[in-house]
Structure formats: structure tokens, C-alpha cells
Amino acid sequence: MNELILARWQFGITTVYHFLFVPLTLGLSVLVALMEINFVRTGKEIYKQMAKFWGKLFLINFAMGVVTGIVQEFQFGMNWSGYSRFVGDIFGAPLAVEALAAFFIESTFIGIWVFGWDRLSPKMHAAAICLVAFAANLSAFWILVANSFMQSPVGYAVRNGRAEMTDFFALLQNPHVWYQFPHTVLSGFTTAAFFIMGISAYHLIRKKNPDFFRRSFRLGVIFGTISLLLVMGIGHLQGQYLSKTQPMKMAAAEALWESADPAPFAAVALINEEKQTNTVSIEIPKLLSFLTYNTFDGEVKGMKELQKGYEAQYGPGNYIPPVIPVFWSFRLMVGAGGIMLLLALFGLYSWKEGKLENRSGYLKVMLWAIALPYIANTTGWLMTEIGRQPWIVQGLQKVEAGVSPTVSAGEVLATLIGFTLLYGVLAAADIYLLKKYAQAGPEGTILERHSGTSLKEESLWI
């Protein structure tokens, strides 16, 4: 494998690791804030204990997310200097704003929240976690502004072989941002909801702190059901938008080689990329046209026709992305989302009927269902990025032009192995800590044990 393949593997692996922690941070920060707002509103101690217990798990996940995220930015200079030189004037701006206007707020107020129990008034303490939740999701916004430029470049001019920003506000008004940002944030909300529902189900099966975890499950299932319905709605609109702006990606997601009017939806397909055909395809007639245009008529261009158009526009080359991973990533994402919606609706029904705790089979399934949003998040990201190939910046720079010319394959391989092993250890530590304190229940809350210690003692603990 050459430098390009190894650099792509390294960035892909480290990003997937990092993205295991990000969605839970986005959603759990909001849910913990809602719990503490309920405590301020009602004065009921149980909501304070809920905020402490789930906040402890949030802190563990947040710390892992920070550690794994640091490596991402170093890779732009180490492995992708060609990309950084070409687009750094644009890509660096939203990342700088993210650090200054979002991450600093998040890290500052998370410290105030940790050390502020019994030192701040309940309202001020709740305001701290609300600012953490706001800043966490604002951080995601700025990162997606940067990523959206790679997907759909706006507000730039190419001068002397480099892309230079001409309009900062065009980056903020990029339509791609306003489809991608709510989709990502709502996916994070869903992740947190299923995380809370799964752990609550574990304790309800064992009949430990039933009132505590019944309330937690109720909050999770309501929040999760709403988030799932919204993420599916915005996902549908995003798919229609991408059909116009990145038609090759959407054609690959459907394994559509030939243009069709009306176009069928391939539920399952055995794809032969070399011969550019589907050996076997189970199709639903006209459905792809309906999903694209909200009508059962309408042409959807296939990859072969799009390839000819791209060659005429950009010159000779292969502009068809790896179809098999894009096709199946899309189906895994949608399939995981459909299963989650069914589980959430059944959980909502069981709670409304007052039969939740009697359905031990369902509760056992919900413990394992914690994995479903992670599957959806990961496969959704893979479809988004692999489907853009061969571009690193859509229509402006190909991936092979972005890799560092002075880094050897051996150097990239060494760091790839090192990062993979290190991230594996961190992931194992994260799972161990989350499992340990989730199983312990609210009595084992770290924040409870340290709420009465001095600031010096708490600093030593941290």
C-alpha cells in the first residue's frame, strides 16, 4: 500500500474512533441539562441525582472525545499538507472559530459545573450545564461548516493554485450546512436517548432504583422518538438536496448504473463494480423517483451518464466512487434507524400503558440496542465521505493531490499502527469506565462522593 492508501486508512480509522464519542456528547449534554432544569423547576431531589448520575457518564465520554479529537487536526499538516496548502485559508477559519467560540466555552463551563455543586445556586449551576450543551452543539456547527465546504464549495476564488476565501458569510449560508448540521445533531440526540434507555432498561430488569430509572427511561424514549422522527425527515430532505448537488454520491448509494425514468429503489443488490452492473437486484418500482422528487415520475441519472458528464467537465478519470461500501453503508444506516424507531415507539406505548417493567424481553433488547445509533452514525459518515470520492474537495481537488508528498509509506504505516493501538486502548478504557459506573447506579456517582470535598481535594481527584 502506498502513502495515499495508508493516509486514507489512518484518517478513516481515527475519525471513526473519534466519532464514537461525539454524538453522545451532543445529545447527553442536552439531556443532562433538561434533568437539572427539572430539578430547578420542581425542587425534586431525584432530578438532581439524575443529572449527577448521567452527568458522570457524560464527563467520561467527553474526556475521551477530546483526547481522540486532538489527533485529527495534526493529520492535516502531517499526512494531508497538499490539502492544507490548497484550502487552509478557508478550512482553518471555521475550525479556529470552533476552538475560540465553542470549545473554550464548553470546557470552561464544564469545569464550573463539575466543581459548582453546592457552591453555586441551583439556577446558576443549571445555567452552566445549559451553556455546556449549547457550546457542544455549536462546536459541531463550526466543524460541519468546514466539512460542508469540502462537500459543496462556496465563497471562494482559486488564485495561484490555492483556494482563497472571498465571503465568510457564504460559508455560513451554504445550504449543505443546514441539511448536515440538524441531521448530525439529531443523530446525537438519538444516540444519547438510546444510551439512557439501554442503561435504564438494565436497571429496571434488576429492579434497582425503579423510580429513578423509570423517569430516566421516560425522558429517553420521548426525546428519542421525537429526535428519530426529525432526523428521518431531515434525512429525506438532505437526500433530495444531494441528488442535485452530489448526484454521483446518491447514484452510488442506490447502485444505479443506468439512468431511469421512473427510477426503482434497489432494496438489495449484488454489485459487480468491474463490469458496472448489478448481478442481482431486488427493486421496488418507481420508489427512487418518489424519494427524489416526491412523485412517482422523474429521471434519476445513473453513474455511467454522470461519469461521461464529469469527464467532459473535469477531464479524463474515474469519477465513480466505491459503490459497494456506499450502497451498503446507506442501507445499514437506514435499517438501523428503522429498527430504532420501532423500538422507541414500542417503548413509548409500553410506558403509556404502564407495562414497561413487565416486558423483560423488550428491556433486554434495549440494552443491546445501545449499539444501533453508533452503527447508524458510523455508516452514515462512511457513506458521506466515501461517496465523495475521488474528490477531497468536491470539484476542486482530488484526494491524491491532497496527500503530503514528503511523507513515506513507512512513516504513515508506523503512525497508523500506533494510533490504532492507542485508540483501541482508549476505547476499551471508555467502555470499561462507562460500564463500571453505569452498573453501579446513582449511589456510585463520582460527583456525589466528591461534592463535599475541598477545591484542592477535587483538583487532585480530577
Describe this structure in words.
It is globular, with a radius of gyration of 24 Å. It has 462 residues and is mainly α. It contains 18 helices and six strands. The protein folds into two domains: 3-246 and 322-461, no CATH class; 247-318, no CATH class. The strands form three sheets. It has a two-stranded antiparallel ribbon with strand order 1-2. A two-stranded antiparallel ribbon has the order 3-4. A two-stranded antiparallel ribbon has the order 5-6. Helix content is 73%, strand content 6%. The chain starts with a helix and ends with a helix.
Topology:
Blueprint: H1 3-19, H2 22-42, H3 45-78, H4 81-115, H5 122-151, E1 156-159, E2 162-165, H6 168-172, H7 175-205, H8 210-245, H9 247-253, E3 265-272, E4 277-284, H10 287-293, H11 303-314, H12 323-353, H13 360-368, H14 371-386, E5 391-393, E6 397-398, H15 399-402, H16 409-440, H17 446-450, H18 455-461
Antiparallel strand pairs: 1-2, 3-4, 5-6
Which keywords apply here?
462 residues, 2 domains, two-stranded antiparallel sheet, 18 helices
Shape: globular
Encode the helix/strand succession as letters: HHHHHEEHHHHEEHHHHHEEHHHH
> Average pLDDT, to the nearest integer?
89
End-to-end Cα distance, whole Å, is 43 Å
Helix content: over 70%
In total, the number of domains comes to: 2
- Tally of contiguous helical segments: 18
Instruction: Tell me what portion of residues adopts beta-strand conformation.
Output: 5-15%
Largest sheet: 2 strands, antiparallel
Radius of gyration from CA coordinates: 24 Å
User: Which spans of ≥5 residues are poorly predicted at pLDDT below 50?
Assistant: 444-462
The main sheet orders its strands as 1-2
Strand elements, count? 6
SS class: mainly alpha
